[in-house]
Write a structure and sequence with these properties.
With 425 residues, the chain is mostly helical. The protein has helices at 2-11, 21-32, 43-55, 61-87, 110-118, 128-132, 140-144, 152-166, 169-173, 185-189, 196-200, 204-211, 216-233, 247-250, 252-258, 271-289, 295-317, 330-335, 337-347, 356-369, 385-391, 393-398, and strands spanning 100-103, 242-244, 263-268, 325-329. The longest helix is centred in the first third of the chain and has 27 residues, at 61-87. One of its GO terms (molecular function) is transferase activity.
């Protein structure tokens, strides 16, 4: 792929556009003959991101080409979203009440929990093609009327095929398809925000800059895109949305400013597994776009990032009422998925019964979707188990997280807020 794109750049068959803010903004506006990008807050993270890409990411030819395409896609989406909001004011009038938000570190079982809940038709959820392309094309009214088909699933299928061709391990790490329930990380990317960029590229300056910012404008735009997706789905407005992305661990205050009545489900897992799996996920994506990725440096970054997410999450929980949150442990889901999900439904004041047949079907199907296990180890990234356990000792004690080798399963209890036993148990 790199050789082909390099040849394309050299012969002029593929244009090599500069990764520069003003050029990208002007090019996108010219492409779609629109000039309203909405709130210009996104330009600040965009500028920092581009600086990191140009000076830190060591992009190969495929990385250069993919970055060009990604920025173009996101900017086109912002322009077309603003047109939809202007043409169809009913979109922004759609309420988003009492969303159910799954909050947990990368690789803590958020996807499993999200997809189990998503089979329940009492909830609205994003599908994978909608987080890749949340903004419908201008002719989407004809799709709603049944005259045309929506081309976004086909676009998503091609993007996934390219990613799997570039690194087949991505399928085992995060199995998905165009219509699978998916997280809203792509809606945050629309504001040039979020850890998706950090799992894709080595961009430490951008990462640290974002960690010092208030993400509220990105979440406001995410909420408007969610309204647009709901309108395009013709989803009932009285159904709560299911949301989840590890980004929320860093941005809980912003999330709750935009969704003050959110119900939060926190997921937890042995930190040794969290750090190793997160580093492996980032490694397997970063090596697609750069030939100079250092596994030890990357491992250190995701050790730091995971610790920061846990710290921010624990700090934010101090101001969240107990009645608005519940904790779910990865190992409990492994041992007794039904009992754990029953607790979740009790927290949501819903009867789990109607959803159980679909949940069983999903669990059976997910085994077929995941073709091979995700294999990784901390040692690949120059990190020892003991270092991780020591660094996350407070987290493990607070939420009674068992080490696979040191604590018997029956001695564990699920906790709610800072060590208090869950009332639902």
């Amino acid at each position: 792929m790199n050789a082909a794109i390099r040849a394309g750049f050299e012969t002029g068959l593929i244009s090599k556009a500069p990764l520069e803010k003003n050029y990208l903004l002007e090019k996108a506006a010219s492409d779609v003959s629109l000039d309203d990008f909405g709130d210009d807050w996104f330009e600040a993270p965009m500028e920092v991101l581009l600086g990191s890409l140009n000076h830190e990411a060591n992009l190969n030819e495929a990385g250069q080409w993919a970055a060009q395409k990604q920025f173009s896609h996101v900017l086109h989406g912002r322009l077309m979203a603003q047109r939809w909001f202007g043409d169809r004011p009913e979109i922004l009038a759609r309420p988003i009440s009492r969303p159910i938000v799954i909050v947990g570190p990368m690789r803590s079982g958020t996807t499993r929990l999200h997809r189990l809940l998503a089979v329940d038709r009492r909830f609205n959820h994003l599908r994978s093609f909608e987080t890749i392309s949340p903004v419908p094309r201008p002719d989407f009214i004809e799709v709603i009327e049944g005259i045309k088909s929506d081309r976004r699933p086909a676009i998503a299928r091609r993007i996934m095929a390219i990613a799997r061709l570039a690194n087949p391990r991505t399928l085992s790490i995060h199995p998905t398809g165009p219509f699978e329930p998916e997280e809203e990380l792509g809606l945050l990317v629309a504001s040039m925000w979020g850890m998706k960029h950090e799992t894709q590229w080595s961009i430490p300056t951008y990462a640290r800059w974002c960690e010092a910012q208030d993400a509220t404008p990105a979440y406001l735009h995410m909420a408007n895109l969610l309204r647009l997706v709901g309108w395009s789905q013709q989803a009932p407005i009285d159904r709560p949305w299911l949301l989840k992305t590890p980004q929320h661990m860093l941005d809980l205050p912003a999330l709750l400013r935009v969704f003050p009545d959110a119900r939060l489900i926190f997921t937890h897992r042995d930190p040794v597994k969290l750090v190793g799996s997160a580093a492996s996920l980032a490694w397997n994506q970063t090596i697609i776009y750069s030939n100079k990725t250092n596994p030890r440096k990357l491992g250190r970054e995701w050790l730091r990032k995971t610790a920061l997410k846990v710290q921010r999450m624990q700090e934010a929980r101090r101001s969240i009422p107990d009645s608005n949150m519940i904790d779910v442990n990865y190992d409990d889901m492994d041992r007794d998925w039904f009992g754990t999900m029953k607790r979740v439904y009790e927290f949501l004041s819903l009867d789990i019964g109607p959803a159980v047949p679909a949940m069983k079907q999903y669990l059976s199907r997910s085994k077929r979707l995941k073709r091979r296990p995700h294999k990784y180890s901390l040692a690949e990234f120059g990190i020892g188990d003991g270092e991780v356990r020591e660094r996350f000792s407070n987290y493990s004690r607070t939420f009674d997280i068992a080490s696979e080798v040191s604590v018997a399963p029956q001695s564990r209890r699920m906790h709610h807020k800072f060590g208090q036993p869950l009332k639902q148990c």
